[in-house]
Specification:
Blueprint: E1 7-18, E2 22-30, E3 33-40, H1 41-47, E4 54-59
Antiparallel strand pairs: 1-2, 1-4, 2-3
């Protein structure tokens, strides 16, 4: 797979919360870190994503926000 995004992180699916239209996928990216992604339920089926699947998290964002505790 070749894509223009430079932020590609390999991981393993830990959890899939399926909904009627969109589903939430939690991915273990190592070091005790996880990333959650919302994708269509159709994409879950088309890609065969399930707990234990090896996936690549692709992050393409034009804005990255930071926050601090007061």
């Amino acid at each position: 797979m070749k894509i223009s995004a430079r932020n590609v992180i390999k991981g393993t699916v830990l959890e899939v919360k399926e909904g009627p239209v969109n589903s939430q996928v939690r991915v273990d990216i190592g070091g005790g870190n996880t990333i959650k992604s919302m994708i269509t339920s159709d994409a879950i089926e088309d890609l065969g994503i399930a707990v234990g699947s090896d996936v690549q998290v692709v992050i393409k964002a034009s804005d990255v926000m930071l926050g601090i505790d007061d």
